[in-house]
Specification:
Elements: E1 2-4, E2 14-16, E3 26-32, H1 38-53, E4 58-63, E5 83-86, E6 98-101, H2 111-118, E7 123-128, H3 139-145, E8 150-155, H4 161-165
Parallel strand pairs: 3-4, 3-6, 4-5, 6-7, 7-8
Antiparallel strand pairs: 1-2
């Protein structure tokens, strides 16, 4: 049984009872920024922990860093992850039956997301901010959101934290 918690914003996520698992799930979480910052701690880390708790058959992560390394402060995010790939690595989408777009400031309509759609792998998008002015979103981003592969879209606030709390 899936329940939605009524926890504070940073803990709101879909939770499955501890005894339940998803042993047939082969998931790739893409567009992960591993800086160990507040956004990671409030959104990405809880998402990755929950996926690990489901004990999927395969749990891989693609980190958005072309250098092939990441800041040591972000390493705790990857507990329970089978493989960590970088944006420069080629990933075989057919190994997975779910692709999750990690929380982040913006939707990425990257090649890997399009490959998932072309392979008919369901895509789930978590905690993104749509542009303050939707007209500024690219046509490619809108068409990606409207594609049939996107099965779930979870939005953040309508504007970014930085914009909301900036002093002008």
């Amino acid at each position: 049984m899936i329940t939605i918690s009524r926890a504070p914003v940073y803990e709101r996520c879909i939770k499955i009872k501890p005894m339940e698992s998803l042993p047939m799930l082969k998931v790739l979480v893409v567009i992960v920024y591993a800086y160990g910052n507040l956004g990671d701690e409030m959104e990405t880390t809880p998402l990755l922990r929950q996926i690990a708790a489901w004990q999927p058959a395969l749990f891989d992560v693609q980190v958005m860093d072309k250098s092939g390394s990441f800041d040591g402060s972000g390493i705790r995010m990857f507990s329970g992850v089978d493989n960590v790939y970088f944006s420069i690595n080629l990933i075989n989408i057919s190994n997975y039956n779910a692709i999750i777009h990690a929380p982040g400031p913006r939707l990425s309509d990257s090649a890997i997301m399009h490959a998932a759609c072309n392979s008919r792998v369901p895509v789930f998008i978590f905690a993104i901010t749509l542009a303050e002015n939707p007209d500024k979103m690219t046509e490619a981003a809108w068409s990606f959101l409207e594609s049939s592969c996107v099965r779930l879209l979870v939005l953040r606030e309508p504007i970014s934290y930085k914009h909301a709390f900036s002093t002008k």
